[in-house]
Amino acid sequence: MTGIELLVGGWFASPVIKRVLEKAMKYVGGNYKLNKNTEELIDTLTGKLALCQETVKVAERRMINSEHLAVWLNKLKRVVYDAEDVLDDMETKSIKDQVEGKNKVRQYASSSLCGITNMILPGDLSKRLKKVVDKLTKLSAENQYFLNLVNTNIMDESNDLELSHPRETRSRQSEEVKLYARQQEYLDLILDMISHPETGSSKKKEQEAESSKKKEENYNNRDLLFVIPIVGMGGVGKTALAQAVYNKLEVQQTFETNAWISVSYNLNIKLVMLKLIKSLRPDLVLDLLTLEDISKILSFIINGKRFLVVLDDMCEKIENQWDDLYETLSVCGPGSVVLITTQNRAFANRVGTFSPLVLDILEPEILWELLKNIVFGNMDISEEKRKNLEHIGKQISDKLHGLPLAAKIIGKLLRDKINEKNWRTISRNEWWNMPEGRSQILPSVAIGYQHLDLCLRQCFAYCSVFPRNSLIDKDRLVQMWIAQNFIHHNSNDVRKMEDIGREWFDKLVEMSFFQLAGDYNGYVIPNLMHDLAVIVSSDDCFYLTDRSNEIREGVRHLSVDTQNLNVLQQIPERNHIRSFFYFGFPHVDGMLSTINKILCNMKSLRVLDLSYLHMDAKEPPKGIQNFQGVLDLSFFNFETKEPPKAIQNLTHLRFLDLSSTGIAELSHSFLNDHYHLQSLHIRQPKSTWEFQLVKLPRSINKLINLRHLNSDEDTIAQISGIGQLVDLQELDEYRVGEKEGHKITELKNLRELSGCLAIRNCENVRSKEEAEQARLGDKENLNSVKLYWGEERRGSNIMDKEILDGLKPHEGVTELEIFFYKGISFPDWMTDRSLLLNLQTIRLESCTNLQALPPLGQLPSLKCLELFYLDSIKMIDHCLYGSNECAFPALTHFTCSFLKSCREWTQPTNVSRFFPRLSTLEIVDNDNNALSKVPFHCFSASLTALMLNGCYDLNSLAVSLHHLTLLNLLYIDDYIVSISLNTNALILLEDLMLVRCTGLSIEGDLQSLTNLKRLEIRSCPKLMSNSKHDITNKQKGKSLKVNQAKGLSSLSDLRMDQSLLYTAYHLILGSLPSLRFLHCEGSEQWQFSMDQTLWFQELTSLHELTFSKCKFTRLPSSLVTLPSLRKVALIECPYLQSLPENGMPAFLWELALDNCSQNLVRRCQPGGEDWPLIAHVPVIRIDGKVIERPQNSAGTSYVSFQQSFYLKFLTYQKRFSGRNFSFQVRPGHIA
């Protein structure tokens, strides 16, 4: 490495030397019997390494231009890597001798050389060690010269990098995306376009549109699918804008389905389609199919559906294949949107149905405001200090090229150290003066990278092995860092290596080296950062594609992204490769054998990821049997194959990913000598909720360094003696068996387990003493424990209490769930407040013999309590509350379901405060309707959500409901008690659902519920008996003049049946300006009155209208006037014979008829009497089948819809005139 990469410190010798020194020092002066020659070699190795270490430390803190020094440093690093391989082989031999010789866990502690008393090296290993020492001796002879050179090469004190060390950060970066001015304007534009595409009806605009339309050429069916490109250079905020659109709640609700795809540079259209299918239907495994078949399946999935797809970071490579993708997507429902981000303006012009939204660099004033906000935020500093800092900060801001990403990087760097010295050091950094032609890295990016700690630099640079825009899983990447020994465990640090790695990752996220993916499902590396990683790691990492140059000699981390076997076969024999990733196409004939040959030479491999490679399957891909009418499945006749056999000789492996490869078995010899293996991923998805069983060898319990085993529960349940894997970090489920190797005692030594542990078949535990041997109390990293007894057992089992007593968890557990427990009471630890101090969630289910609840009310941290099927509990009373002054001080959510013997929930008499923070209460009592009393009034100061189902005789609700004035959600189902709902006391309600409430009536006016957003009323015959708008009201015959100042102005979703429909509902509900979804069910009226017809006319925001099981003979004639109506569904309306004579709305996208009269079905067919009224509707479904259109109508069906989009953008162009907005209709895109 002699180029720009050396200037930013990208070659990482110091961490390698440090870990090799630590490993070698264990052999010096320890408890190891080494022959004299080996001892001398190890001693010389440590001495020479220590000598060179000082030079390396100094070099990594300078910007060095000496090519001779660069060559020497790289030679040194290669020798150190070789030394690490030799020491690794020595450790492998030691562990193997112990495992095979003694076969007891306590005699070969994980990753430790302790206890090794005799070390006799085989001849070849001894020779390799001597060769390494000789090379190192030769290099160390030049050490003093280069140390002097480094010390005299200090450019300026300001260039001596002041490294920032990783600090603890939040585990999840969940900041809301903040947009600057232009982004916000574009966001509003796109959102308005999606929500209201039909504006612009003035005569002048119609004339302008008609004039423009005459110049347009027919562009197939592009009025159904809109492609909106966002264009700009890297770092201007394209992805942030697309993410803001994608994650808006109104956008999620508008479209039937959504997908976010990060498009890598080497991704072809086939893989884009596969990603789309995987996003929409994760149960399908289709990698073996052809492009044509994949296209058919994608078309089948999205047919007629309105969707939003974001294709982030599209490149011109896709251009030649774009028409294939568009053709597949064009079967969508009308109004579907593909939002594209790209840096290529020509490509955007080519694919967009409208001219691109162009994001330019920010003006200096705007960028400075952005930088100040990032640096200072709400920080409280003196005015004088801020003034001095702002003077320096403004100088820095002027050097950021107008890029928001650069402002984020430098801003967070400045925020870390708020002092003038640090700011001046950054302001004077040599990178600002670097000639443009010399570096492909932005100065701001390089400076941000320089100021990272060396460990973070190394970890980030390693990520260049991933393709651009790859979705990165945080925990999986941390496992790779550990596998490469980038993260060391310090004996004085109580944190695990995984914890340290996650903190480092969060630091890199905070510094914008990673960012959340658009759908928040993982992380991606911004393009500018990925370019940096590629450059600074170019000596260590190589990404092989069809266009790659020759692989450099020193490369140690290799990624392959090609399906060209000739390219693969040219990979030279390199035994020092430490990482191998295959990102090529999943199935290419001969690929498996070719990769097997490549792996045979990679003896030093630490990380191997073949998860993109599919072993041939003997069955069709899982999940596509449903497409038998779409595809020919006859060609799937392959034989099942094992993974490449070369893997069994890769004894240095720490990380192995064979997930999603279709493997069915790992042979006995496959993992026989993989004693260093830390992470094994073998989960094989079969469908969304199912996984394929992988047969494991018995010897898997000898992988004593295994920390992560990612597979399904059935596969893991095969392992006999899993307790020997003492470093295992996760075990989602353990099934207790009666045979040796599967007993509860296997959990004894698994002290590193973290996260959630579910223990099933607890009935197979024979005694309390055996249960105690699981030592759950020692597993301090667990935060959730779930205990299951057998569901099918009958009667009382006196052992359950003793067994549960022995399964006492650690006091740090925050979640405890117990299922099918047959004891009549709980052991004492369930009442121990000090033990359960941190418990936040408790779920007790199907504990049918339990007669008394423990005093959970005294737990200070308990937030959620769920009780299900506790058949023997007769009362909720002081036994549950406990003896503290305040019962349930932190509880916010309480669920009681199917407590069939529980008669009463008593009010406490011995506590001063009772559920002070309870916000959500859910009671389900469908079995015996036993519960009759609940102290609802005690919750009036906090309760915001109340859900009751099947509480027929709950009399206390009637006298307490008007006290619950803070409710924003009320759901009552199956309630027979006479009760009056006072709407004036419930004005905060946002969700109201009343179903099968035969004695419920409303007191007051529904229109007083001004915050109501969702309303559902069904089977409530007395609902309006007290209303002034009852059916007998004299106003019923009067004409309606809707008062816009009245009505449920926030209501967006309404479902009603005869309970409201038999009344003057148009008066009861009033104006509904925000209503988007209306479902009317079971109407007994034969026709709509004039008042009701006028009421429908005022539903200007209505998006979807459904009539179900109604008796009317005609639809409201005013439907044709509704500008936002997109879908009308008519379900089981047997008396409806025709559609309104004045037609259906001009912008209607879908009309659906299900089980309607045959006459109506006939009239709605092409050529039928009503066909002219609906010929403009893109999707017409009759009994689930989309109606085929006559060929000659394709060219004129949807002109009005596309025209409305054009008018919309004429409006926006006028609004934003003079702002350099280049958003206009593309030529050729209006039919």
Summarize the structure in words.
The protein is α/β, with parallel strands linked by helices and 1231 residues long. Helix content is 30%, strand content 14%. It is built from 36 helices and 39 strands. It has a 19-stranded mixed β-sheet. Strands 8-9-10-11-12-13-14 form a 7-stranded parallel β-sheet, covered by helices on one side. Helix 3 runs parallel beside helix 6 and helix 17 packs parallel to helix 19. The protein starts with a helix and ends in a 16-residue tail after the last helix. The N terminus and C terminus are likely disordered. It comes from Rhynchospora pubera. Belongs to the disease resistance NB-LRR family. Keywords: ATP-binding, Leucine-rich repeat, Nucleotide-binding, Plant defense, Repeat. GO terms for molecular function: ADP binding; ATP binding. InterPro entries: Apaf_helical, LRR_dom_sf, LRR_R13L1-DRL21, NB-ARC, P-loop_NTPase, Rx_N, WH-like_DNA-bd_sf, WHD_DRP.
Query: Which percent band covers the strand fraction?
Result: 5-15%
Task: State the major sheet.
Answer: 19 strands, mixed
Oligomer: single chain
Rounded radius of gyration (Å): 35 Å
Residue share in helix: 25-40%
Q: What's the pLDDT, averaged over the residues? A: 79
Distance between the termini: 57 Å
**Structural class, please?**
alpha/beta
Question: What are the low-pLDDT stretches, counting only 5+ consecutive residues below 50?
Answer: 1-10, 102-117, 154-177, 198-222, 617-622, 631-640, 1030-1045, 1192-1231
- The strand count comes to 39
C-alpha geometry: globular
Counted by DSSP, the helix tally is 36
